[in-house]
Design goal:
globular, single chain, 9 helices, 19 strands, 6-stranded antiparallel beta barrel
Length: 390
């Protein structure tokens, strides 16, 4: 039987434990230094605590040490790797190939998606170089993944959920070019979430002040079986900087989907021990998302960007049917409550939002007076009751 792994992000030990309790077979967490998410670096003590906890469930802990290193950092990085090895971490995610020339412990090496893993030649090279697993580029389609699997024998890990960068996986230099802050050093300034103007060849503005490079978020939940058959054995959720409820909800959502597949196909098995039961109904639209896309998995798509906002829009609620001075009505099947956060795209402007003060049937009384027109599409980007459940 082939082990199938659900891999969740961990900002720290608390997040890692929550991921495991909500169904993750493994977690990835930033090393104290040299992680591609500088803001999500973790102390040695927390990593050690998480390793002890994870191994109770036969879950694994992978360490992201995936920046490009300067020469004067290599010795320190190698000492850090040995320290991580001695505390029992399960693998090391790296980008800098210089580490292969160093005296490393016998720790499984995973090639970060930052190493631009998009062809058979590249994956084969990494396999021959001693890597145990390759984290594939997000831009690959199912036929390309199948072809890579058919021509290599290395483990394949793929992203299934979370934020997308407008640049090609492992080939983003935009942040460094614009701001001097390099994503390859863990300090991306996220220029793809900024506003831009679109000009034609004569300098005429075609689109003004829009988030033209901000992509929607990845959601491949309807393709899990296809991805397993294509050769993916580790399913990765993005989000080491997301909040705890995002982690719980999204991990639980994919745990349930994968369990359904494993129950119907006995040639695959869960990668860790135990069974997870939930007291809530997971729903990826109820936590941070910019709208979802399956990106290029089933061929190139046109509408993969979220040009009106770089923020979370959440779940669609319905349409405004009436607007009064102190309330408005919404045609919806959803149950709203005081404390909910609602938002909408104001024509010609940004995403606007409000906090619900009171609900009376389909009448919404906001905490502040707002200008909203009938026909406006309303989203909920904070479900107060769902957050309480989590």
């Amino acid at each position: 039987m082939i082990p199938i792994e659900l891999l969740s992000p961990a900002k720290n030990a608390e997040y890692g434990k929550a991921a495991i309790l909500h169904g993750a077979d493994a977690v990835y967490i930033g090393a104290p230094r040299y992680s591609a998410r500088y803001a999500a670096s973790t102390s040695i003590e927390e990593i050690e605590e998480l390793v002890r906890y994870a191994h109770l469930y036969r879950a694994k802990v992978y360490i992201a040490l995936n920046t490009i290193l300067y020469d004067n950092e290599i010795d320190d990085a190698v000492r850090l790797v040995w320290q991580l090895y001695e505390m029992g971490v399960d693998a090391l995610i790296i980008q800098d190939m210089g580490l292969l020339q160093c005296d490393l412990p016998p720790l499984p090496l995973f090639a970060s998606t930052q190493t631009h893993n998009n062809t058979v030649d590249k994956v084969s090279f990494l396999e021959k170089s001693g890597f145990q697993r390759v984290i594939l580029a997000r831009e690959l389609g199912l036929p390309e993944i199948k072809y890579i699997k058919a021509n290599t024998s290395i483990e394949l890990e793929g992203f299934i959920h979370g934020a997308l960068c407008v640049s090609y996986s492992g080939q983003c230099y935009m942040s460094h070019a614009i701001t001097g802050r390099s994503g390859n050093r863990g300090v991306c300034a996220q220029p793809c979430r900024s506003r831009y103007n679109l000009l034609d060849a004569d300098g005429n503005i075609l689109i003004s002040d829009a988030y033209l490079l901000s992509l929607k978020d990845l959601n491949l939940s309807t393709y899990l079986k296809d991805l397993i058959e294509a050769g993916i054995t580790s399913f990765k959720i993005e989000g080491r900087l997301k909040d705890l409820n995002y982690l719980k909800n999204v991990t639980a959502y994919y745990r349930q989907l994968l369990d359904t597949i494993l129950e119907t196909d006995r040639s695959y098995v869960k990668a860790s021990s135990g069974k997870t039961d939930f007291h809530f109904i997971p729903d990826p639209y109820k936590t941070f998302n910019r709208g979802y896309t399956d990106y290029f998995l089933d061929g190139k798509k046109k509408k993969v960007a979220s040009v009106h906002t770089q923020k979370s829009i959440g779940e669609r609620i319905g349409l405004v049917t009436q607007a009064k001075q102190d309330y408005f009505t919404v045609e919806t099947s959803k149950t709203l409550s005081a404390g909910d956060g609602l938002c909408w795209i104001q024509p010609g402007k940004d995403l606007e939002g409000l906090l619900v003060n009171r609900v009376d049937g389909n009448k919404i009384y906001p905490a502040k007076q707002v200008s909203i027109k009938p026909g406006t599409e309303i989203f909920r980007n904070n479900d107060f009751q769902f957050e309480k459940q989590l």
